[in-house]
Specification:
239 residues, alpha/beta, Rossmann fold, 8-stranded mixed beta sheet, 8 strands, 36% helix
Amino acid sequence: MMDQTVTSHPVLQDARGLDIRVAPRRLIRAGDAALVRQAPQEFVRLVYAVDALKARDASFVLQFLSATKGEGTSLVAAQFASTASAEQSRSVLLVNCDPSVATSQRPTLVEALQRHGKIEAAIGPSITAPGLMIAQLTDYAHPLLSIDAAGVRHIFDLAKNRYSIVALDCPAVSQAADSLALARHCDGTLLVVRAELAPKRVVKDTIAALDRFGGQVIGMVFNQAPAGRRSWFRRRTGA
């Protein structure tokens, strides 16, 4: 029987009240943004936008990350993964990368790989979203001290063999520098920015840090952005 702690995962929360803006990085530089009025519809659009970045039938490791705590990264990542699992023919894997938040009593992906050379034992189904699987990367305070870069790549390669999208729910950069280091092993990073919370300088510094670590920022999700207020977007990004 699957451990019931899975039910505490944010994927079970209702995201209908969110106002989200999705701004691909090229639009950030051009000073534009796409206004989102209904979060569930926009998550569908976001799923197809990510799908368009993939080679045909290829899998994609997508990192969700914020600069500071409290910007809604877990909710956005979980809602995206839930939506993607409903839209994709193959299953989707949502990986909790925050060692302080346990989603299950199963072994972690790192433990499963080190003990068995495979990751299946670490993965369990969501009880609310068909096609969505859930796992935890590791329970070490500093994940990348528990496994080397080759091991991380091996875990992601094994996951990509089975799942169309591997979504990483990562702790904020201000809490865990490991999140930056993980970015280079991902096919793309979405930066989650909560309206009226993240200062412009912090957002820019985080993007620059991701660049230095070899990450690929493919876009930004503006969480709870007030409808029609492009001034907030311009103020926060400098566009």
